[in-house]
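Methods — Computational structure assignment.
A single polypeptide chain was analysed. Its primary sequence is given first, followed by the predicted tertiary structure written as structure tokens.
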Amino acid sequence: MSNILEARSMNKKVELVKNHELHILKDVNLEIEEGEFVSVMGPSGSGKSTLLYNVSGMDRMTSGSVKFKGSEISTLKEEELAKIRLSHMGFIFQDINLLKNLSLIDNVMFPALVSKDADKDAVHQKAKKLLEMIDIEKLADHNITQASGGQLQRVAICRALINDPDIIFGDEPTGALDSKASGEVMSILAEINKQGTTIMIVTHDAKVAAKTERVLFMVDGDIVAQKKMRKYDEQDRDIKVREEILMKWLVENGF
């Protein structure tokens, strides 16, 4: 299996005041294989979200290299990066960021309609199928005030999938949800991953991370440990065992 994402000697520094820098990422090396489901955990301030933003090209690292599908992206111009993010990457955030003046299905369609050559009818049909896939097609014409947090996060997943991304990045995608909605969202992501889409998420929740197949643990701006697990299947009856094993490992690493 080839790597879809590779980072080498990645550093991120931010100048707080004159002559004083905050070193957020420190010579980070990372490889993610095509089809993997990876989660990133660590204490608050360890650099988890910064890592995700920098490997996805949403932020500019201070030094280092990031290759996406074998091509260097860290040196690309912002316009070129934006095209890659739009066409090959999907994003899900804790703050769902749906547009208030659009219906739910229009929010799903929006990234695909950015292209001037987009076929609106074809995009509409695809968005409808995505909403059907996650069982909220009946809410398609509703606005965002007429749906629950869990339903809105499902819409955000559909939005992330509308352009058939090679990889989905999630920054605390279940962070604002209750345990039931969180479990439902993770089940959807696990199924998407099972179909071949690579997923990388940041999370503080061991129950969420236990449904991924590799957990990276960050401390003070670097990946200090990783835990490999077999790919999760909804038919598994050992989720509690997975959670217990992961929690023990996290505690051993100072979580």
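Note: The longest strand covers residues 3-17.
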